[in-house]
Write a structure and sequence with these properties.
The chain is α+β, with helices and mostly antiparallel strands. Helices cover about 30% and strands about 15% of the residues. Strand 9 and strand 10 form a beta hairpin.
Amino acid sequence: MAKGAVLGTLTLSLLAVPAQAAPADSLPKPDVTALRGVLRTAVQQGAPGAMARIADHGKVRTAAVGVADRTTGRDLSTVDRFRIGSVTKTFSAVVLLQLADEKKLDLDASVDHYLPGLLPDRHITVRHVLGHRSGLYDYTNDMFAKTVPGFEAVRTKVFTYRQLVDRSLRHARTDKPGAAYSYSNTNFVVAGLLIEKLTGHSVQKAYENRIFKPLKLRDTFYLHPGTKIPGRHTRGYLTPDQAGAKLVDSTEQTVSWAQSAGAIISSTRDLDTFLSALLGGRLTSAAKLRQMERMIPVNSTQAYGLGLRRRDLSCGISVYGHTGAVQGYYTYAFASKDGRRSLAALATTSNNGEVLNTMLGTLESAFCGKRATSPRAVTTVERYEDVAPGVVRN
């Protein structure tokens, strides 16, 4: 399948039925030995480093292998900061759900009501945008058709949100509004515009005031268009399309091509804190959290709500969160339905399908424990829908 391919049409009437939404106190004990094995395998497959942190009823388990910097050889640590890619989408969705709680936003209102003239179809609602059902073409398909040249072309560029939306609108839409799930970064660029219009602040201030500061997330930043990760961090390495080519250090970039779709920096600790707070009901009302968790099937093991992904594991347990891919970093950040057990895991490469598939095993080890089976290989369709090479598509 070609890069950036997406799954077929899914009707709105078909809601995904979750596997067991088990509370954390009934989950199997995490298998830390297996977790370390998953991380070692990811490094053997080409990631310079891989790490994971499990928070479970106040008990923390961590594991890290490989290096944070290929030049100095410094060991990777779970305290290192990194780019979280599309896990940013969950932060953006939370801000909009909070605004809905405050009666400043109607999820079923047209985007055109808040941003007149931005989109060509007044039938595209805020709910469609947050659930990837708008039909808006993903502009990153073209931007990163060639992984490394595409990245180098935008590494230092600064885009406006409207420039990114315009790139999408050069293409026909993928479907009618609401007709089908089709992952598109364009949706969460629109979300960023909505946040700024409704709050009167930048997305940076909205994230800080509504999530970062209240949760005391000391390692979490939105620095657009700055290029450097502050403080102690791990470098990220992009895998070129050509087999055997040297990894490209992609740590420093504006991430302006993603912004509210993928530009947040964080740490495993802060991601665990964020997801535990969200699923524990501390960031939105219970009613709006249920809206986020209302899922549309993506494939046999995944479903998508409003900026929130569900994965159904081999032991019959479902976990909630998001995956993230930005050049040089693969992130898995998920928690149990009640938020009392969470996992944040990272591999310091991207555009490497073997590593991406292997890192799914961190969820199995963290939530299924010794009941986990070897994670079945992710199919080509799943892989490219979830994370196209070199692209924030997850």
